[in-house]
Amino acid sequence: MTKLLDELKYDLSFMKSHSLQPQWYKILKVFILLGFLVGYSFLFGWMKTTLFFVVFTLLSAIVHLIYRTQTKKWKQSWLDFVVVEKDNQMTTKRIGLYYYAAVVLNALISLLISQALT
After folding, report:
1. DSSP symbol at 7
2. Backbone phi, then psi, for 14, in 5-degree steps?
3. Is the model more confident about 103 or about 18?
4. How large is the angle between the packed helices 46-70 and 23-44, nearest 10 degrees?
5. Which among 77, 83, 93, 102 is most buried, taking Cβ atoms within 10 Å?
6. Distance, C-alpha 53 to centroid of its chain
7. How many structural domains are present in the chain?
């Protein structure tokens, strides 16, 4: 259990410090998701919204874990995740098309599941 907590701390630390997205977008995307969920709940109710959120969160966790594994804990390049060495330090460039396509696909799958199952 402590190993899992250590890995979660490691990922949270990376998410806070990375430069894959601009700092303003890291904050804005929380409000985008919250606004979407509020609108979705007004249109379709809390049951469908909760199901959407749960499915979207699970699919996003899968994408996160795939990227984490394939990049060897954010230390090597893979797909649109690019690691460069600068001043004897590893840094990352902005995330790209594959990641955002996965996010959109997760949202579409979550939408379909939440509409079909409730």
Report:
1. H
2. -65, -45
3. 103
4. 150
5. 102
6. 13
7. 1
CA 15 to chain CA mean position, Å: 10
Using CB atoms within 10 A of its CB, is residue 49 exposed (0-12), middle (13-18) or buried (19+)? Answer: buried
**What count of other Cβ atoms lies within 10 Å of the Cβ of residue 4?**
8
Nearest to 77 by CA among 96, 92, 99, 94: 92
Whole-model pTM over 0.70: yes
Q: State yes or no: pLDDT of 76 exceeds 80.
A: yes
Type of residue found at 60? S
- What is the domain extent for residue 104? 2-117
- Give the N- to C-terminal CA distance of the chain in Å, as an integer: 35
pLDDT at 26: 87
91-to-14, 17, 68 alpha-carbon distances in Å: 11, 11, 15
Length of the chain (residues)? 118
